[in-house]
Amino acid sequence: MRGTLGQLRGRLLSLAAVMLIPIALGFAGCQPAAEGTSVDADGMATPTVESATPATQAAPGSGSPGVYEDRVVFGQSAAFSGPASQLGLGMKLGIQAAFAEANRNGGVHGRQLELTSLDDTYEPELAIANTTELIEEGVFALIGAVGTPTSRSATPVARDSQVPYIAPFTGAAFLRDANVLPNVVNMRSSYNQETEEMVARLTEDLGITKIAVMYQDDSFGRAGLNGALAALTKRGMEPAAVGLYPRNTTAVKTGLLDLQRGDPEAVILVGAYRPLAAFIAWARHVGEDWEFINISFVGSNALAQELSELDPDRGAGVFVTQVVPFPHDGSVPIVAAYHQALAEYDPEAQPGFVSLEGYLAGRLAIAGLERCDAELTRECFMAGFRNSEPVDLDGFALRYGAGDNQGSDTVFLTMIDENGEYVSIDSLDARRRAGG
Question: CATH assignment of 2-188+333-398, given 3.40.50.2300, 3.30.420.360, 1.10.3720.10, 3.40.50.1820?
């Protein structure tokens, strides 16, 4: 079975790589293989597996796959190559830092934590193949998936196998229906909550009445679009214009033209960092002075880097909503813990929003394991979220309950300053008050 699934995933990965060639040719030069991949003799990137020991046999007497006498194995399917790779790499880094931190302290109930990661390039078909392979290999739970279209494809596979699906990097509404997906544990706020905060701040802080939406043309983009439309309708408003672009491309110029026809004052952006950086740069290049506000999935640090590389002057004043605390504020206990764990795991790694979310995801999984005894089962693991007290991650509280599988409802505001760095803000008029 594993050989068949491996061949399927290999064929899908090859197909995805071929489809991405035109995109790659649009960027500067050839890039080295992404972390978490290796290059074969034909130059194809293939996923590496982080697990130190193959996950093939459960420990004697264990009630769940992936649980061994000395370790617990988690699985992850995410983008480690392609235009969304920084999102997958960031989540993986944060989870690994959290697991390494626990392992240095003896693990959980004497078991070390391991992560097996497979590259889906942010494509649904590969996410299905990876998820199936990880489940067949016998992981205890899936963690840190990246994206709405990939999660939409992978969650039925995990649900049907009764495998926990922990802290996906998406705020899509369908993942928050605990009756349909009882195996899902969300950590972050939803896209509806983010877009509600966006519209509230644009209208109340800046007095803006003409708001457009630019979105990625897939289930993720439509989830953000629907949230923005709901927030506008709540206020008796309609979008000034709507534009879109295809996933895993930077084909944004048609969307820009569509938005220009509506003459908006602000644009809500629902997409990934590379195409949206191109969109912002083009819009400002042609003289549009719109306010730009991005949903958290964009990949904040990667967005700022892309904007800096395209044009150092184009990024200042761009807003991003966040679902985790500011990753550079060491006065926040959970952020201080993250800094220490990240430095111990990879001294060269720089703090960022995505890897902080990955660290929180890892800590959430650890908290779930700790609520069970040494006879660890998936049933006990999931019950710990439904029936217990809030999960306190060094002051970052996550609250679950019967029918409620989302831990946090908090949305934070950030802005890129004139130096290309993020600053935490409490309202969108921060730039005006600063004289920007």
Answer: 3.40.50.2300
